[in-house]
Automatic annotation (TrEMBL):
It comes from Fructilactobacillus myrtifloralis. Its cofactor is FAD. This is NAD(P)/FAD-dependent oxidoreductase. Keywords: FAD, Flavoprotein, Oxidoreductase. It holds the Pfam family Pyr_redox_2.
Amino acid sequence: MKKVLVLGAGYAGLRACKRLAKSKQDLEVTLVDRTPYHYDATQLYRVAAGSIPAAKIMFRIPDLISPKIKFIQDEVQVINGEQNTVTMAEHGEIGYDYLFNGLGFEPETFNTPGAATDGLQISNIENSTRDAEALQTALEQYAQTKDPKFLRVVTVGGGFTSIELIGELVHMVPKWAKQYGFKRDDFQITCIAPNFLGMFNEKQATYAKRYLEKKGVQFILGVTVNEVTDDGVFYGDDNQFIEAARVFWTAGVKGSDVIAASGYEEHRNRVLVNDDMSLTAYPNQYLIGDVSAVKEPQSGRVYPTTAQISIYEASNAVANFENKLAGKPIVPFNYHSLGTVCSLGPYNAVADVALGGLSVKINGFPAAVLKNIIFKRSSYELSGLKMMLQS
Ligand SMILES: Cc1cc2nc3c(=O)[nH]c(=O)nc-3n(C[C@H](O)[C@H](O)[C@H](O)COP(=O)(O)OP(=O)(O)OC[C@H]3O[C@@H](n4cnc5c(N)ncnc54)[C@H](O)[C@@H]3O)c2cc1C
């Protein structure tokens, strides 16, 4: 019997478990996660904005995996590749014959002073819940003092997380205005970033920006933030200051810090994997999801970190693991994106969808409906039928 260890119950780890549970090989599979629940990370911005409760995107891990798989709740500290063991906070060292590492992403601060301490992060249930509480506290402080500074929010970054968060905040403002006694225009959201929605073409990015500007959002683009403090941010070459009660640090992600702690050859905690998702240095290790780096064959650039690709990588890794045990050739990594949807609040979005080899651009309410269908489908699959992430 081969001992297989899966680290992380995110999209990649759970998909790997699903596939491993169906394996005809004689396997003893153990899944490790620091929390007892899986969370839909693509919806964390809604928890951070306070528009949905965290419980709506949390799913108990034992309910999602086959009874054949053992679940251990613990913090992974380091992977000891030479010894084929993993060191965990509570359980000490656990051995494996094969490892599937899906430890996922963490916020990337680019060593910006104050980003980790004074910036609000959106990377898990705990910090997203804290963000919503911090926003509530600022609103309550405004209600008590009428000081407008408590109604100022800055988001750092022009990517998915920042823009989806802004869309959600904009949606919440009318409700907060009524509840806490201010005019809608009094709530000021400023987005500071070097660029804006780079994954969409210019037309769609402009659509998104104009829509949010009409809702009163201010964009300061083409600059980077130099420092985050407890009452604002310094940005740009001339180090200008903008006051804010809350600063969301949504400027990018890196892989899990366990990667750096384990001594892999990495870039921003992501490790370049072979075509079969294994590592050259440790062929019995498969890296899947945001900790892995796979190059696009045409451009040579590393694929972005997405839930979609994480799921695909996990399926590919398990298929190749089984082929390896069966002495069959590898299944090369051949990924085709289904498209991208960026929410601008519950009723608006931009979508670039792959349909029959064509890239179809959809803006507005239909794109928001599409985003909602994707969310509802994944929630239903997770909670309803234990059909977890089936292809
Ligand atoms: C706000 C937001 C919106 C997004 N929107 C989209 C989208 O629309 N479409 C899309 O495709 N992608 C989207 N993404 C990206 C997507 O969420 C990630 O690419 C995806 O979550 C990566 O999946 P993963 O399985 O690699 O890791 P994760 O989802 O990060 O899961 C990692 C798991 O490992 C566990 N873990 C981490 N460290 C440890 C440790 N040391 N010990 C034990 N357990 C640990 C965590 O608890 C977690 O369960 C979005 C991300 C964010 C933040």
